[in-house]
Amino acid sequence: MKISVELTLTPLQDDFEPAIIHFIKKLRASNLRVLENPLSTQVYGEYDEVMHLLSTEIKEAFELIEKGLLYMKIVKSDRQDYEPHF
Fold it and tell me: Using an 8 Å Cβ cutoff, are 48 and 1 in contact?
């Protein structure tokens, strides 16, 4: 089953950029499709593969920050080619 996941990592501390950059680079190193914009990162692929990657990388990201939030939206479909019709 294909899924699309939108992630926003928000460290609640000063000097937050290194943790976010590290997290995104780890996602990019996977064989999954990863897209970024200034507000979030999207990951696309098979459910088991995406969730395994996220489980590992979210844990590592949380270990690198003192406090933080991770917002995650999961859509049951491959939305990587979505284009608005307006």
Answer: no
Task: Give how far the C-alpha of residue 47 lies from the chain's centroid of Cα atoms, to the nearest Å.
Answer: 14
Report yes or no: 44 and 4 within 8 Å, Cβ to Cβ.
Answer: yes
Mean pLDDT of the 22-49 span: 96
Residue (of 53, 23, 40) closest to 79 by Cα position:
40
Q: Which residue has the tokens 């990162």?
A: 41
| Paired residues of 9 in beta bridges | 70
Residue 21 has pLDDT above 90, yes or no: yes
Tell me the CA end-to-end span of the chain in Å, nearest whole number.
Answer: 29
For the full predicted model, state whether its pTM sits above 0.70: yes
**Tokens found for residue 7:** 């992630």
Instruction: Give the dihedral of Cα atoms 68, 32, 56, 15; nearest 10 deg.
Output: -30
Reference 13, options 71, 67, 55; nearest CA is 67
